[in-house]
Amino acid sequence: MSPMNGLRAQQQPLNTLLPGRNDPALQGKWGSPRFVEDLVKKVYVSSIRRIVDRLVDGGNVLVVAPGACLDALGELVGGQVQKRTQAKWHVVGRPPSQATTLNKEWDDWTNLFGHIAEWRETADTGAARRPGFLFTNLDLTANERQEVETSPTAKNALWALAECTRLGGVLGLADRSGPAVPTAVSRYFDEESRFTLDELPTETFHHLIPQRLGKAFARESYLSGVVIQTLALRLRWTDPLRVVRILDDVATNLELGDAGQGDLAKVLAAIGARVCPVQFEPPSVVAAPSARSDESLALTQIRAEVLEPFKAWLGTSGHTSDEQANDLARRRLPSGLILHGPPGTGKTSIARWLVGELDLPVQVTSAAQIKASGYGDAERNMRDLLRAARRAAPCVLVLDDADDLLPDRRKVTGAVAGAEVGIVNAFLQELEGTAGRLEGVLIVLTTNRFTELDPAAQDRMKPHVRVPYPLTDTEVGAIVDVVASELGLELSEIRGTLAERFFDSVRPGQPGGPIKTAEYRYGLDAGLFSPREIRDAMRILLPGTRGQVTIYKPTQVDVERMNKHYAWLSRTAQGGPYR
User: Fold this and answer.
1) CA 346 to CA 363: how far, in whole Å?
2) N or C: which end of the chain has fewer CB within 10 A?
3) Contacts of range 119-123, beta carbons closer than 8 Å, 24 or more positions apart
4) What does the alpha-carbon distance between residue 455 and residue 463 come to, in Å, rounded to a whole number?
5) Model pTM score
Protein backbone atom coordinates (compact mmCIF):
# COMPACT_ATOMS: atom_id res chain seq x y z
CA MET A 1 0.00 0.00 0.00
CA SER A 2 1.29 3.46 -0.83
CA PRO A 3 2.39 5.41 2.24
CA MET A 4 0.23 8.34 1.18
CA ASN A 5 -2.95 6.29 0.92
CA GLY A 6 -5.24 6.55 3.90
CA LEU A 7 -2.70 8.61 5.91
CA ARG A 8 -3.13 12.20 7.02
CA ALA A 9 -0.23 14.10 8.49
CA GLN A 10 -0.60 15.12 12.13
CA GLN A 11 0.44 18.53 13.42
CA GLN A 12 4.01 18.55 14.68
CA PRO A 13 5.87 20.74 17.21
CA LEU A 14 8.50 22.96 15.60
CA ASN A 15 11.32 21.35 17.57
CA THR A 16 10.78 18.10 15.64
CA LEU A 17 11.54 19.84 12.33
CA LEU A 18 14.98 19.97 10.74
CA PRO A 19 17.40 22.55 12.20
CA GLY A 20 18.92 24.96 9.69
CA ARG A 21 22.40 24.41 8.26
CA ASN A 22 23.77 27.14 10.57
CA ASP A 23 21.97 25.90 13.66
CA PRO A 24 24.33 25.24 16.62
CA ALA A 25 22.60 21.88 17.15
CA LEU A 26 24.23 20.55 13.98
CA GLN A 27 27.68 21.96 14.77
CA GLY A 28 28.78 21.94 11.14
CA LYS A 29 27.51 18.39 10.48
CA TRP A 30 25.03 19.44 7.76
CA GLY A 31 25.43 17.06 4.82
CA SER A 32 27.91 14.78 6.61
CA PRO A 33 27.51 10.96 6.58
CA ARG A 34 26.26 11.14 10.18
CA PHE A 35 23.70 13.79 9.17
CA VAL A 36 22.49 11.65 6.26
CA GLU A 37 22.30 8.53 8.42
CA ASP A 38 20.24 10.34 11.07
CA LEU A 39 17.89 11.72 8.40
CA VAL A 40 17.40 8.33 6.72
CA LYS A 41 16.76 6.69 10.09
CA LYS A 42 13.98 9.19 10.93
CA VAL A 43 12.32 9.21 7.51
CA TYR A 44 12.37 5.45 6.79
CA VAL A 45 12.01 4.26 10.39
CA SER A 46 9.10 1.90 9.64
CA SER A 47 10.74 0.32 6.59
CA ILE A 48 14.08 -0.11 8.38
CA ARG A 49 12.35 -1.88 11.26
CA ARG A 50 10.69 -4.37 8.92
CA ILE A 51 13.92 -4.96 6.98
CA VAL A 52 15.88 -5.66 10.16
CA ASP A 53 13.19 -8.00 11.53
CA ARG A 54 13.25 -10.06 8.35
CA LEU A 55 17.06 -10.32 8.33
CA VAL A 56 17.19 -11.31 12.01
CA ASP A 57 14.71 -14.08 11.24
CA GLY A 58 17.12 -15.43 8.60
CA GLY A 59 15.38 -14.00 5.55
CA ASN A 60 16.88 -12.21 2.56
CA VAL A 61 15.93 -8.63 1.62
CA LEU A 62 16.36 -6.60 -1.57
CA VAL A 63 16.07 -2.82 -1.10
CA VAL A 64 15.77 -0.43 -4.06
CA ALA A 65 16.22 3.10 -2.73
CA PRO A 66 17.59 6.54 -3.64
CA GLY A 67 21.29 6.23 -4.39
CA ALA A 68 22.27 8.94 -1.91
CA CYS A 69 20.65 6.92 0.91
CA LEU A 70 22.21 3.51 0.22
CA ASP A 71 25.35 4.01 2.33
CA ALA A 72 23.27 5.11 5.30
CA LEU A 73 20.78 2.25 4.87
CA GLY A 74 23.59 -0.30 4.79
CA GLU A 75 25.15 1.13 7.97
CA LEU A 76 21.85 1.41 9.84
CA VAL A 77 20.50 -2.02 8.93
CA GLY A 78 23.86 -3.78 9.39
CA GLY A 79 24.41 -2.15 12.76
CA GLN A 80 20.97 -3.11 14.08
CA VAL A 81 21.24 -6.70 12.79
CA GLN A 82 24.66 -7.13 14.42
CA LYS A 83 23.39 -5.68 17.69
CA ARG A 84 20.44 -8.07 17.84
CA THR A 85 22.19 -11.24 16.63
CA GLN A 86 25.79 -10.70 17.80
CA ALA A 87 26.79 -12.18 14.41
CA LYS A 88 29.37 -11.10 11.86
CA TRP A 89 28.28 -8.78 9.07
CA HIS A 90 30.17 -9.13 5.79
CA VAL A 91 30.11 -6.39 3.15
CA VAL A 92 30.51 -7.56 -0.45
CA GLY A 93 31.72 -4.75 -2.69
CA ARG A 94 32.57 -1.16 -1.89
CA PRO A 95 30.03 1.47 -0.82
CA PRO A 96 27.79 2.70 -3.67
CA SER A 97 29.09 6.26 -3.37
CA GLN A 98 32.43 5.01 -4.75
CA ALA A 99 30.82 2.97 -7.53
CA THR A 100 32.35 2.91 -10.97
CA THR A 101 31.90 -0.42 -12.73
CA LEU A 102 30.89 -3.87 -11.59
CA ASN A 103 34.35 -5.36 -12.12
CA LYS A 104 35.90 -2.75 -9.81
CA GLU A 105 33.25 -3.09 -7.10
CA TRP A 106 32.99 -6.84 -6.54
CA ASP A 107 36.63 -7.65 -6.00
CA ASP A 108 37.32 -9.41 -2.67
CA TRP A 109 36.20 -12.90 -3.70
CA THR A 110 38.81 -14.87 -1.70
CA ASN A 111 37.57 -13.47 1.62
CA LEU A 112 33.92 -13.96 0.66
CA PHE A 113 34.44 -17.58 -0.31
CA GLY A 114 36.26 -18.06 3.00
CA HIS A 115 33.30 -16.65 4.94
CA ILE A 116 30.92 -19.01 3.13
CA ALA A 117 33.20 -22.02 3.75
CA GLU A 118 33.53 -21.10 7.42
CA TRP A 119 29.76 -20.94 7.80
CA ARG A 120 29.30 -24.34 6.13
CA GLU A 121 31.86 -25.99 8.42
CA THR A 122 30.27 -24.68 11.62
CA ALA A 123 26.58 -24.68 10.69
CA ASP A 124 26.03 -28.31 11.66
CA THR A 125 27.47 -27.85 15.17
CA GLY A 126 24.79 -25.34 16.18
CA ALA A 127 27.47 -23.14 17.73
CA ALA A 128 27.80 -20.63 14.96
CA ARG A 129 25.60 -17.57 14.74
CA ARG A 130 24.11 -16.83 11.35
CA PRO A 131 26.34 -14.27 9.55
CA GLY A 132 24.88 -11.39 7.57
CA PHE A 133 25.89 -10.38 4.06
CA LEU A 134 25.49 -6.96 2.48
CA PHE A 135 25.63 -6.99 -1.33
CA THR A 136 26.01 -3.47 -2.72
CA ASN A 137 25.37 -2.25 -6.26
CA LEU A 138 23.03 -5.03 -7.42
CA ASP A 139 21.76 -2.60 -10.07
CA LEU A 140 25.27 -2.70 -11.58
CA THR A 141 24.90 -6.40 -12.35
CA ALA A 142 22.73 -5.48 -15.36
CA ASN A 143 24.01 -4.81 -18.85
CA GLU A 144 22.24 -2.67 -21.45
CA ARG A 145 19.80 -5.54 -22.18
CA GLN A 146 18.88 -5.86 -18.50
CA GLU A 147 20.67 -9.19 -18.32
CA VAL A 148 23.47 -10.20 -15.94
CA GLU A 149 26.93 -9.16 -17.10
CA THR A 150 28.85 -12.02 -18.76
CA SER A 151 32.23 -11.16 -17.23
CA PRO A 152 33.90 -13.69 -14.85
CA THR A 153 33.48 -11.18 -12.02
CA ALA A 154 29.75 -10.98 -12.61
CA LYS A 155 29.44 -14.77 -12.73
CA ASN A 156 31.30 -15.01 -9.42
CA ALA A 157 28.99 -12.36 -7.99
CA LEU A 158 25.92 -14.31 -9.04
CA TRP A 159 27.31 -17.57 -7.62
CA ALA A 160 28.20 -15.88 -4.32
CA LEU A 161 24.76 -14.29 -4.08
CA ALA A 162 23.10 -17.66 -4.70
CA GLU A 163 25.17 -19.32 -1.97
CA CYS A 164 24.64 -16.51 0.54
CA THR A 165 20.88 -16.32 0.01
CA ARG A 166 20.72 -20.08 0.59
CA LEU A 167 22.35 -19.50 3.98
CA GLY A 168 20.03 -16.56 4.66
CA GLY A 169 20.54 -13.09 6.08
CA VAL A 170 21.41 -11.27 2.82
CA LEU A 171 20.71 -7.57 2.34
CA GLY A 172 20.91 -6.51 -1.30
CA LEU A 173 20.99 -2.80 -2.20
CA ALA A 174 20.26 -1.19 -5.56
CA ASP A 175 19.94 2.40 -6.73
CA ARG A 176 16.38 3.17 -7.89
CA SER A 177 17.80 5.53 -10.52
CA GLY A 178 20.08 2.84 -11.95
CA PRO A 179 19.29 -0.07 -14.26
CA ALA A 180 16.60 -2.49 -13.14
CA VAL A 181 17.97 -5.43 -11.15
CA PRO A 182 18.07 -8.42 -13.57
CA THR A 183 15.59 -11.24 -12.98
CA ALA A 184 18.51 -13.67 -12.57
CA VAL A 185 19.48 -11.65 -9.47
CA SER A 186 16.10 -10.58 -8.08
CA ARG A 187 14.76 -14.18 -8.15
CA TYR A 188 16.81 -14.90 -5.02
CA PHE A 189 14.51 -12.54 -3.11
CA ASP A 190 10.82 -13.43 -2.85
CA GLU A 191 8.16 -10.79 -3.46
CA GLU A 192 7.57 -10.12 0.25
CA SER A 193 11.29 -9.45 0.73
CA ARG A 194 11.60 -6.71 -1.89
CA PHE A 195 11.36 -3.16 -0.61
CA THR A 196 11.21 -0.19 -2.98
CA LEU A 197 11.65 3.07 -1.11
CA ASP A 198 10.05 5.33 -3.70
CA GLU A 199 7.48 7.43 -1.88
CA LEU A 200 8.39 9.42 1.22
CA PRO A 201 6.08 8.53 4.14
CA THR A 202 3.71 11.33 5.16
CA GLU A 203 3.97 10.55 8.86
CA THR A 204 7.73 11.23 8.94
CA PHE A 205 7.97 13.94 6.26
CA HIS A 206 8.15 16.72 8.87
CA HIS A 207 11.74 15.65 9.65
CA LEU A 208 12.71 17.05 6.22
CA ILE A 209 11.09 20.49 6.73
CA PRO A 210 13.47 23.22 7.93
CA GLN A 211 12.39 24.94 11.14
CA ARG A 212 12.67 28.33 9.45
CA LEU A 213 10.11 27.28 6.85
CA GLY A 214 7.86 25.70 9.46
CA LYS A 215 7.78 28.86 11.60
CA ALA A 216 6.16 30.83 8.76
CA PHE A 217 3.11 28.53 8.90
CA ALA A 218 3.11 27.62 12.60
CA ARG A 219 0.27 28.13 15.05
CA GLU A 220 1.28 28.17 18.72
CA SER A 221 4.61 26.43 17.99
CA TYR A 222 2.93 23.66 15.96
CA LEU A 223 3.03 23.08 12.21
CA SER A 224 -0.36 21.97 10.91
CA GLY A 225 -0.87 18.57 9.32
CA VAL A 226 -2.41 20.23 6.24
CA VAL A 227 0.81 22.14 5.47
CA ILE A 228 2.93 19.02 6.04
CA GLN A 229 0.69 16.91 3.81
CA THR A 230 0.61 19.56 1.06
CA LEU A 231 4.42 19.73 0.98
CA ALA A 232 4.65 15.92 1.12
CA LEU A 233 2.26 15.53 -1.81
CA ARG A 234 4.43 17.88 -3.85
CA LEU A 235 7.77 16.25 -2.99
CA ARG A 236 6.95 12.67 -2.05
CA TRP A 237 8.75 11.11 -5.05
CA THR A 238 11.95 13.11 -4.57
CA ASP A 239 15.16 11.87 -2.98
CA PRO A 240 14.93 12.89 0.74
CA LEU A 241 18.33 14.59 0.67
CA ARG A 242 17.24 16.61 -2.34
CA VAL A 243 14.02 17.51 -0.50
CA VAL A 244 16.12 18.93 2.31
CA ARG A 245 18.22 20.99 -0.11
CA ILE A 246 15.14 22.28 -1.97
CA LEU A 247 13.23 23.29 1.17
CA ASP A 248 16.30 24.84 2.75
CA ASP A 249 16.89 26.85 -0.43
CA VAL A 250 13.24 27.97 -0.47
CA ALA A 251 13.39 28.95 3.19
CA THR A 252 16.61 30.92 2.59
CA ASN A 253 15.56 32.79 -0.56
CA LEU A 254 11.86 33.53 -0.03
CA GLU A 255 10.35 36.24 2.13
CA LEU A 256 8.23 33.91 4.24
CA GLY A 257 6.42 36.46 6.41
CA ASP A 258 5.65 36.40 10.10
CA ALA A 259 4.71 33.30 12.08
CA GLY A 260 1.48 31.82 10.78
CA GLN A 261 1.38 34.19 7.79
CA GLY A 262 3.29 32.13 5.23
CA ASP A 263 2.11 32.05 1.61
CA LEU A 264 1.82 28.34 0.77
CA ALA A 265 1.06 28.96 -2.90
CA LYS A 266 4.30 30.97 -3.24
CA VAL A 267 6.26 28.20 -1.54
CA LEU A 268 4.74 25.54 -3.84
CA ALA A 269 5.61 27.62 -6.91
CA ALA A 270 9.21 27.96 -5.71
CA ILE A 271 9.39 24.21 -5.08
CA GLY A 272 8.02 23.50 -8.56
CA ALA A 273 10.73 25.63 -10.16
CA ARG A 274 13.40 23.61 -8.36
CA VAL A 275 12.04 20.08 -8.55
CA CYS A 276 10.97 19.78 -12.20
CA PRO A 277 13.04 17.05 -13.93
CA VAL A 278 15.14 18.27 -16.82
CA GLN A 279 13.11 16.38 -19.46
CA PHE A 280 9.93 18.27 -18.52
CA GLU A 281 9.61 21.62 -20.23
CA PRO A 282 8.66 24.59 -18.04
CA PRO A 283 5.11 25.88 -18.43
CA SER A 284 4.55 28.30 -21.25
CA VAL A 285 1.61 30.05 -22.82
CA VAL A 286 0.30 28.01 -25.76
CA ALA A 287 -2.22 29.54 -28.14
CA ALA A 288 -5.62 27.95 -28.56
CA PRO A 289 -5.44 25.40 -31.39
CA SER A 290 -6.18 26.78 -34.80
CA ALA A 291 -7.73 23.44 -35.70
CA ARG A 292 -10.73 24.06 -33.49
CA SER A 293 -13.01 26.82 -32.34
CA ASP A 294 -13.66 27.29 -28.60
CA GLU A 295 -17.23 26.07 -29.09
CA SER A 296 -16.25 22.67 -30.55
CA LEU A 297 -17.60 19.56 -28.86
CA ALA A 298 -14.08 18.37 -28.04
CA LEU A 299 -13.00 21.54 -26.24
CA THR A 300 -16.31 21.85 -24.41
CA GLN A 301 -15.92 18.34 -23.02
CA ILE A 302 -12.26 18.88 -22.09
CA ARG A 303 -13.04 22.13 -20.28
CA ALA A 304 -15.77 20.48 -18.18
CA GLU A 305 -14.16 17.10 -17.42
CA VAL A 306 -10.43 17.87 -17.32
CA LEU A 307 -9.53 21.55 -17.19
CA GLU A 308 -11.91 22.73 -14.47
CA PRO A 309 -11.30 19.81 -12.02
CA PHE A 310 -7.52 20.22 -12.39
CA LYS A 311 -7.70 23.99 -11.87
CA ALA A 312 -9.90 23.47 -8.82
CA TRP A 313 -7.36 21.05 -7.33
CA LEU A 314 -4.39 23.31 -8.06
CA GLY A 315 -6.15 26.27 -6.48
CA THR A 316 -7.37 24.37 -3.43
CA SER A 317 -4.06 22.69 -2.60
CA GLY A 318 -2.22 25.98 -2.58
CA HIS A 319 -4.66 28.36 -0.94
CA THR A 320 -6.75 26.60 1.68
CA SER A 321 -6.15 24.87 5.00
CA ASP A 322 -9.41 22.91 4.69
CA GLU A 323 -8.25 19.30 4.58
CA GLN A 324 -11.67 18.04 3.48
CA ALA A 325 -11.69 20.47 0.55
CA ASN A 326 -8.18 19.29 -0.44
CA ASP A 327 -9.22 15.64 -0.41
CA LEU A 328 -12.43 16.31 -2.33
CA ALA A 329 -10.61 18.25 -5.05
CA ARG A 330 -8.00 15.49 -5.32
CA ARG A 331 -10.64 12.77 -5.74
CA ARG A 332 -12.26 14.74 -8.55
CA LEU A 333 -9.11 14.73 -10.67
CA PRO A 334 -9.48 12.84 -13.96
CA SER A 335 -7.39 9.69 -14.27
CA GLY A 336 -6.23 10.77 -17.71
CA LEU A 337 -7.43 11.86 -21.12
CA ILE A 338 -7.58 10.02 -24.43
CA LEU A 339 -7.87 12.17 -27.56
CA HIS A 340 -8.81 10.04 -30.55
CA GLY A 341 -9.96 10.64 -34.08
CA PRO A 342 -8.73 10.80 -37.68
CA PRO A 343 -5.16 11.88 -38.48
CA GLY A 344 -4.47 15.60 -38.67
CA THR A 345 -7.52 16.81 -36.76
CA GLY A 346 -5.47 18.59 -34.10
CA LYS A 347 -5.23 16.13 -31.21
CA THR A 348 -1.66 17.08 -30.28
CA SER A 349 -2.50 20.74 -30.80
CA ILE A 350 -5.39 20.44 -28.35
CA ALA A 351 -3.11 18.66 -25.85
CA ARG A 352 -0.65 21.56 -26.03
CA TRP A 353 -3.48 24.06 -25.65
CA LEU A 354 -4.57 22.21 -22.49
CA VAL A 355 -1.01 22.46 -21.15
CA GLY A 356 -1.04 26.21 -21.73
CA GLU A 357 -4.37 26.57 -19.95
CA LEU A 358 -3.09 24.65 -16.91
CA ASP A 359 0.32 26.41 -16.96
CA LEU A 360 2.15 23.23 -15.86
CA PRO A 361 5.44 21.55 -16.81
CA VAL A 362 5.00 19.24 -19.79
CA GLN A 363 6.74 16.52 -21.73
CA VAL A 364 5.50 15.44 -25.15
CA THR A 365 6.87 12.10 -26.33
CA SER A 366 5.89 9.39 -28.80
CA ALA A 367 5.94 5.64 -29.12
CA ALA A 368 8.91 5.89 -31.49
CA GLN A 369 10.98 7.77 -28.90
CA ILE A 370 10.21 5.32 -26.11
CA LYS A 371 10.93 2.31 -28.34
CA ALA A 372 14.05 3.77 -29.95
CA SER A 373 16.49 1.83 -27.74
CA GLY A 374 17.36 -1.87 -27.71
CA TYR A 375 15.21 -4.83 -26.79
CA GLY A 376 13.91 -4.53 -23.24
CA ASP A 377 14.83 -0.85 -22.95
CA ALA A 378 11.35 0.40 -23.87
CA GLU A 379 9.79 -1.10 -20.74
CA ARG A 380 12.42 0.59 -18.58
CA ASN A 381 11.98 3.84 -20.54
CA MET A 382 8.26 3.75 -19.79
CA ARG A 383 8.83 3.20 -16.07
CA ASP A 384 11.47 5.92 -15.92
CA LEU A 385 9.21 8.36 -17.77
CA LEU A 386 6.27 7.84 -15.41
CA ARG A 387 8.48 7.96 -12.32
CA ALA A 388 9.95 11.24 -13.57
CA ALA A 389 6.36 12.48 -13.99
CA ARG A 390 5.65 11.56 -10.35
CA ARG A 391 8.57 13.69 -9.25
CA ALA A 392 7.51 16.57 -11.52
CA ALA A 393 3.85 16.58 -10.38
CA PRO A 394 1.76 18.56 -10.90
CA CYS A 395 2.57 18.20 -14.59
CA VAL A 396 1.25 17.00 -17.94
CA LEU A 397 2.59 14.05 -19.93
CA VAL A 398 1.49 13.74 -23.57
CA LEU A 399 2.01 10.35 -25.28
CA ASP A 400 1.56 10.57 -29.05
CA ASP A 401 0.67 7.51 -31.17
CA ALA A 402 -0.58 5.68 -28.08
CA ASP A 403 -2.03 2.79 -30.11
CA ASP A 404 1.53 1.83 -31.10
CA LEU A 405 2.75 2.17 -27.51
CA LEU A 406 -0.15 0.50 -25.67
CA PRO A 407 -1.60 -2.07 -28.11
CA ASP A 408 -4.25 -4.59 -27.14
CA ARG A 409 -2.24 -7.33 -25.40
CA ARG A 410 -4.66 -9.99 -26.66
CA LYS A 411 -3.71 -9.24 -30.27
CA VAL A 412 0.08 -8.78 -30.19
CA THR A 413 2.02 -11.57 -31.87
CA GLY A 414 5.48 -12.29 -33.22
CA ALA A 415 8.98 -12.03 -31.85
CA VAL A 416 8.37 -8.73 -30.05
CA ALA A 417 5.10 -9.76 -28.39
CA GLY A 418 6.76 -10.15 -24.99
CA ALA A 419 8.30 -6.68 -25.20
CA GLU A 420 5.00 -5.11 -26.29
CA VAL A 421 3.15 -6.72 -23.37
CA GLY A 422 5.91 -5.60 -21.00
CA ILE A 423 5.50 -1.96 -22.03
CA VAL A 424 1.74 -2.06 -21.44
CA ASN A 425 2.21 -3.80 -18.08
CA ALA A 426 4.78 -1.21 -17.00
CA PHE A 427 2.40 1.61 -17.93
CA LEU A 428 -0.53 0.12 -16.02
CA GLN A 429 1.57 -0.71 -12.96
CA GLU A 430 2.95 2.81 -12.71
CA LEU A 431 -0.48 4.32 -13.42
CA GLU A 432 -2.28 2.56 -10.56
CA GLY A 433 0.07 -0.05 -9.13
CA THR A 434 1.77 -0.72 -5.83
CA ALA A 435 3.24 2.79 -5.76
CA GLY A 436 -0.28 4.25 -5.78
CA ARG A 437 -2.13 6.38 -8.25
CA LEU A 438 -0.20 8.88 -10.39
CA GLU A 439 -1.75 11.75 -8.49
CA GLY A 440 -1.26 15.23 -9.90
CA VAL A 441 -0.04 13.89 -13.25
CA LEU A 442 -2.37 14.41 -16.21
CA ILE A 443 -1.52 11.82 -18.87
CA VAL A 444 -2.88 12.62 -22.32
CA LEU A 445 -2.92 9.86 -24.93
CA THR A 446 -3.44 10.71 -28.60
CA THR A 447 -4.34 8.02 -31.11
CA ASN A 448 -5.79 7.57 -34.59
CA ARG A 449 -6.87 3.99 -33.77
CA PHE A 450 -8.79 4.08 -30.51
CA THR A 451 -10.08 0.51 -30.84
CA GLU A 452 -6.50 -0.80 -31.04
CA LEU A 453 -5.64 0.50 -27.54
CA ASP A 454 -5.38 -2.03 -24.73
CA PRO A 455 -8.80 -2.30 -22.99
CA ALA A 456 -7.25 -1.89 -19.53
CA ALA A 457 -5.63 1.39 -20.62
CA GLN A 458 -8.95 2.55 -22.08
CA ASP A 459 -10.73 1.70 -18.84
CA ARG A 460 -8.24 3.51 -16.59
CA MET A 461 -7.76 6.58 -18.79
CA LYS A 462 -10.93 8.67 -18.85
CA PRO A 463 -12.52 10.75 -20.31
CA HIS A 464 -12.31 9.70 -23.97
CA VAL A 465 -12.71 12.68 -26.29
CA ARG A 466 -13.16 12.26 -30.03
CA VAL A 467 -11.59 14.98 -32.20
CA PRO A 468 -13.46 14.65 -35.52
CA TYR A 469 -13.12 16.25 -38.92
CA PRO A 470 -14.56 19.79 -39.13
CA LEU A 471 -18.30 19.22 -38.78
CA THR A 472 -19.78 22.28 -40.48
CA ASP A 473 -18.92 24.59 -43.35
CA THR A 474 -18.54 27.35 -40.75
CA GLU A 475 -15.74 25.40 -39.02
CA VAL A 476 -14.05 24.75 -42.36
CA GLY A 477 -14.23 28.46 -43.22
CA ALA A 478 -12.72 29.39 -39.84
CA ILE A 479 -9.80 27.02 -40.44
CA VAL A 480 -9.25 28.47 -43.92
CA ASP A 481 -9.07 31.96 -42.42
CA VAL A 482 -6.56 30.94 -39.73
CA VAL A 483 -4.31 29.12 -42.20
CA ALA A 484 -4.48 32.06 -44.63
CA SER A 485 -3.27 34.34 -41.85
CA GLU A 486 -0.42 31.95 -40.99
CA LEU A 487 0.74 31.63 -44.63
CA GLY A 488 0.22 35.27 -45.62
CA LEU A 489 -2.57 34.63 -48.16
CA GLU A 490 -5.22 37.17 -49.17
CA LEU A 491 -8.34 35.16 -50.11
CA SER A 492 -11.00 37.78 -50.80
CA GLU A 493 -11.82 36.36 -54.25
CA ILE A 494 -11.48 32.60 -53.65
CA ARG A 495 -12.36 32.02 -49.98
CA GLY A 496 -15.81 30.62 -50.79
CA THR A 497 -14.38 28.30 -53.45
CA LEU A 498 -11.77 26.96 -51.04
CA ALA A 499 -14.23 26.49 -48.16
CA GLU A 500 -16.58 24.57 -50.43
CA ARG A 501 -13.75 22.39 -51.76
CA PHE A 502 -12.42 21.57 -48.29
CA PHE A 503 -15.89 20.68 -47.00
CA ASP A 504 -16.02 17.97 -49.65
CA SER A 505 -14.01 14.73 -49.69
CA VAL A 506 -10.27 14.82 -50.36
CA ARG A 507 -10.66 12.79 -53.56
CA PRO A 508 -12.96 14.65 -55.93
CA GLY A 509 -15.85 12.98 -57.63
CA GLN A 510 -17.12 10.96 -54.68
CA PRO A 511 -20.89 11.16 -54.03
CA GLY A 512 -21.91 14.03 -51.74
CA GLY A 513 -24.86 12.37 -50.03
CA PRO A 514 -24.76 12.50 -46.23
CA ILE A 515 -21.14 13.77 -46.22
CA LYS A 516 -22.56 17.25 -45.67
CA THR A 517 -24.25 16.35 -42.37
CA ALA A 518 -22.41 16.82 -39.06
CA GLU A 519 -23.64 13.46 -37.72
CA TYR A 520 -22.15 11.56 -40.66
CA ARG A 521 -18.89 13.52 -40.66
CA TYR A 522 -18.41 12.96 -36.90
CA GLY A 523 -18.06 9.20 -37.33
CA LEU A 524 -15.72 9.18 -40.35
CA ASP A 525 -12.08 8.16 -39.86
CA ALA A 526 -10.82 8.87 -43.38
CA GLY A 527 -11.62 10.64 -46.64
CA LEU A 528 -12.25 14.25 -45.50
CA PHE A 529 -10.04 17.29 -45.19
CA SER A 530 -8.53 17.58 -41.74
CA PRO A 531 -7.08 20.89 -40.51
CA ARG A 532 -3.59 19.58 -41.32
CA GLU A 533 -4.66 18.53 -44.82
CA ILE A 534 -6.25 21.96 -45.37
CA ARG A 535 -2.96 23.60 -44.40
CA ASP A 536 -1.03 21.33 -46.77
CA ALA A 537 -3.47 22.07 -49.60
CA MET A 538 -3.28 25.82 -49.12
CA ARG A 539 0.52 25.70 -49.28
CA ILE A 540 0.08 24.55 -52.91
CA LEU A 541 -1.52 27.94 -53.63
CA LEU A 542 1.79 29.68 -52.96
CA PRO A 543 4.04 30.37 -55.97
CA GLY A 544 7.40 28.64 -56.20
CA THR A 545 9.28 31.86 -55.34
CA ARG A 546 7.73 34.73 -53.44
CA GLY A 547 10.63 37.13 -53.46
CA GLN A 548 10.04 40.03 -51.06
CA VAL A 549 6.24 39.75 -51.22
CA THR A 550 4.83 39.27 -47.71
CA ILE A 551 1.17 38.85 -48.71
CA TYR A 552 0.19 36.77 -51.73
CA LYS A 553 -3.22 36.85 -53.40
CA PRO A 554 -3.93 33.47 -55.05
CA THR A 555 -5.79 33.36 -58.35
CA GLN A 556 -8.01 30.78 -60.00
CA VAL A 557 -4.87 29.45 -61.71
CA ASP A 558 -3.46 28.58 -58.26
CA VAL A 559 -6.74 26.94 -57.28
CA GLU A 560 -6.68 24.85 -60.47
CA ARG A 561 -3.12 23.75 -59.65
CA MET A 562 -4.28 22.65 -56.20
CA ASN A 563 -7.31 20.79 -57.62
CA LYS A 564 -5.10 19.12 -60.22
CA HIS A 565 -2.92 17.78 -57.39
CA TYR A 566 -5.88 16.14 -55.64
CA ALA A 567 -7.27 14.81 -58.93
CA TRP A 568 -3.91 13.13 -59.46
CA LEU A 569 -4.12 11.64 -55.94
CA SER A 570 -7.56 10.27 -56.72
CA ARG A 571 -6.45 8.62 -60.01
CA THR A 572 -3.29 7.06 -58.54
CA ALA A 573 -5.28 5.70 -55.60
CA GLN A 574 -7.57 3.95 -58.09
CA GLY A 575 -4.62 2.60 -60.11
CA GLY A 576 -5.29 4.80 -63.13
CA PRO A 577 -2.79 7.02 -65.03
CA TYR A 578 -2.63 10.72 -64.49
CA ARG A 579 -3.65 12.79 -67.52
Assistant:
1) 18
2) C
3) 119/167, 123/167
4) 14
5) 0.64
